Amino acid sequence: MFRQNAMRKFPSVADLEIGARRRLPRFAFDYLAGGAGDEDGIARNRAAYSDVQLVPNYLEERDLPDLSAGPFDRQYALPFGIAPVGLSGLIWPGAAEYLAAAARRADIPFCLSTMATSSIEAVGALSGDNGWFQLYPLKDHEIEKNIIDRARAAGFEVLVVTVDTPTTRRGLREIKNGLTVPPKLSPVNMARIAFNPAWALANLASGAPKFETLVPYYPKGVKFKSVAELATNLLARGIGWREIEALRKHWSGPMIVKGILSVSDARHCARLGVDGLLLSNHGGRQSESLVHPLQMIDEIRSAVGSGLKLLVDSGVRSGLDVARAYARGADFVFLGRAFMYAVAALGAPGADHGVDLLRTEVAQALAQIGCPDIASLPEFLRN
Ligand SMILES: Cc1cc2nc3c(=O)[nH]c(=O)nc-3n(C[C@H](O)[C@H](O)[C@H](O)COP(=O)(O)O)c2cc1C
Known about the structure:
single chain, alpha/beta, TIM Barrel, eight-stranded parallel beta sheet, 8 strands, binds flavin mononucleotide
């Protein structure tokens, strides 16, 4: 019953975004939805998908389309996964846990951020072998190795190393909102929280969000007030290919580098024995100037061949967008904000609704064009 109602009230990610906007205090919604600078990058990310057109075949007889996909040996039930989102508990307490559990139920990957507000161990227990772990490079390589070892021990299958944050982002909404962790209880923020009782109650029950995975490594007696402060203290400013090489040696499972957009970086990764690239502009959050992954995918594919898997995120807002990304040559697709909007709009059950909605949309997208399975999508691309 809940699922039917959710499908009627929130039949698209755009509706979930509206629901999220209603239920979150402004500073939390802005943190989730906002982009870098003038936010041009977010608009271009959306346009990148509407430009992809598909040509249908109606006269072949078909069964229901097969939606399974996977970049490596393992096939997941659905062709999309949940991208890493830092500070998830500020958006909705327990968001990472709800999404990890929903991912396991639906058999899709859930990628936990280094900067999530839930620990590796707590989420690993929920995500089972559907868990991927996203690493932000750290200044101290011993801490970095320790975190990776914890991820392996907690059952995470794939390591995702994010390389696209060599500097702090200029998120103007956050600057104006004066976002801190936990949020400062200024009169304006108190008023915003008072207008969002569901969020306030959920927070009351869970306590203030903390970067649980990183807490053990905080210098003694130091409490970080802002993400920027934490970043300057623990996180490295970017990463070089030698460190990717060292991480490759330390992690024996599949390893993906996230945030690659150039042919030259892709070539480095291919040479170092990385298994996949998550082509991403961080959802338009780091700089509005960054090219969209779909504009680079052909060049990168020609440079590195088919051995290196090319995953895509940034701007995916529907199952049709997922299908379009595959049609343009993606080996797997991730969504960040879409799943967080679902949890923010509906709480815990929103995680399952987000997956249901995208499943329905991908199935419809393939059936409409007569495409039998995910691997066949490139044949339906209008060149
Ligand atoms: C609020 C928020 C926090 C994010 N935090 C991280 C993070 O901690 N690590 C990371 O690699 N990417 C992070 N990302 C980027 C996502 O993993 C993903 O690349 C991006 O959301 C994809 O774009 P989309 O939101 O348009 O789907 C974050 C994105 C958002 C929206």
